[in-house]
Each structure stands twice: as structure tokens, then as C-alpha cells.
Amino acid sequence: MKDCITRMSEDYKELKRLAVQTIAALDKLLDEHRPSIFNEVYLTGEEVREMFRISQRSLQTYRDERIIPYTTIGGKFLYPQTAIFEILERNFRKALK
């Protein structure tokens, strides 16, 4: 008699668990993936605010005063990741101790 896999069998349960785990991993990768435009990755305003721990108003002030570079597409502000890292590097101060 051939082995049969049913919904109640351990093999089926293990296969289902692996499929759900794989789908969750793919969803996470898709959420974290940032397509590049001309080899530049752009961050959203929310990501920049979280990175700097600043308010929406502070971010707007940084744009208005040209402290932080940005571009707009369809009314949405995008910030080049390399420029953000350059700003962080340029303003880095070593601890005294």
C-alpha cells in the first residue's frame, strides 16, 4: 500500500508550516526591499523621521533650509539614502572619553 499524505498527517502539517514560514519571509523581504533609481536608494519621510527621531515639522524645516536633500514625485518627498548617510557622517562628533 502506498503512503498517503492527508491533512491530518505529520508530513502535511510540516509542509504547511514550511510554506507559511516561507511566505512570511518573502513578505518581509518585499517590505524591506528598496528599488534603486540610478543606483540610489530613496527613503520616505517616515523613515528619515524615525532615523533622526524628529517630527514632521522638523523635517519640513530641514527641507526649507536646504539642510537635507530631497526630491518629490507626485507630491511625495523622497530622500537619497547616500546623502542622508553623508550628513550623519559629516556631523559625527566623537565622545570625549
Describe this structure in words.
This protein is of the alpha+beta class and 97 residues long. It has four helices and four strands. It has helices at 10-32, 45-52, 56-64, 81-90, and strands spanning 36-37, 40-44, 71-73, 76-80. The longest helix is centred in the first third of the chain and has 23 residues, at 10-32. The protein is elongated, with a radius of gyration of 23 Å. The N and C termini lie far apart (75 Å).
List the helices and strands and how they pair.
Layout: H1 10-32, E1 36-37, E2 40-44, H2 45-52, H3 56-64, E3 71-73, E4 76-80, H4 81-90
Antiparallel strand pairs: 1-2, 2-4, 3-4
Entry keywords:
alpha+beta; 4 strands; 52% helix
- Euclidean distance between termini CA atoms: 75 Å
User: Strand tally, please?
Assistant: 4
Low-confidence stretches: none
Strand order of the largest sheet: 1-2-4-3
**Overall mean pLDDT:** 88
The total count of helices amounts to 4
State the order of secondary-structure elements, H for helix, E for strand: HEEHHEEH
Helix content range: 40-55%
What structural category arises from helix and sheet content?
alpha+beta
Radius of gyration: 23 Å
| Outline | elongated
Please state roughly what percent of the residues sit in beta strands, choosing from under 5%, 5-15%, 15-25%, 25-35%, 35-45% or over 45%.
15-25%
Largest sheet: 4 strands, antiparallel
